[in-house]
Design brief:
- The chain has helices at residues 4-7, 11-16, 57-66, 72-85, 95-111; strands spanning 44-50, 87-94, 117-122.
- Helix 3 (57-66) crosses helix 4.
- Strands 2-1-3 form a three-stranded antiparallel beta sheet.
- It has 125 residues and is of the alpha+beta class.
- It is elongated.
- It has a domain at 58-82 and 95-125: Ribosomal Protein L30, Chain: A (2-Layer Sandwich).
Length: 125
């Protein structure tokens, strides 16, 4: 007479048999590879300084150094470009960063009673 224990497969038998799906790795677990999500780069915007007859060159350099973290040389170069051409690019940023820098600059200009105008436009690829 057989006992119920003899009818159950042994642990040794289970470890050596392939699991469901024919996995030969012995785990019996089928894995599925997930596709990695491709993140798109956010659109970039140019921050533009516009020339006026009242804002001093020194103030523009000050703003470029303090708000835009440009070097002295880069600040002077951008300021002269704005002075000579009427408009100049201070930098290229994501929308939120560009908007924040523009708002900070406008606030500083108001505090110093300058009519400095900045705008942003989409960066062309």
């Amino acid at each position: 007479m057989r006992t119920a224990v003899a009818l159950l497969p042994s642990t040794l038998d289970m470890a050596t048999k392939p699991g469901p799906g024919g996995d030969e790795g012995g785990t019996g677990v089928a894995t599925e590879t997930k596709k990695k999500e491709q993140l798109k780069k956010p659109p970039l915007y140019k921050v533009l300084f516009h020339n006026d007859n009242y804002t001093t060159m020194e103030f523009v350099v000050f703003v470029l150094r303090s708000v835009f973290h440009k070097s002295e040389t880069d600040s002077v170069t951008i300021m002269l470009n704005v002075h000579r051409n009427g408009v100049g690019v201070a930098g290229v940023y994501t929308h939120d960063v560009a908007e924040t820098k523009i708002n900070q600059t406008h606030q500083l200009a108001r505090e110093h009673e300058f009519p400095l105008k900045l705008t942003m436009e989409p960066e062309e690829l």
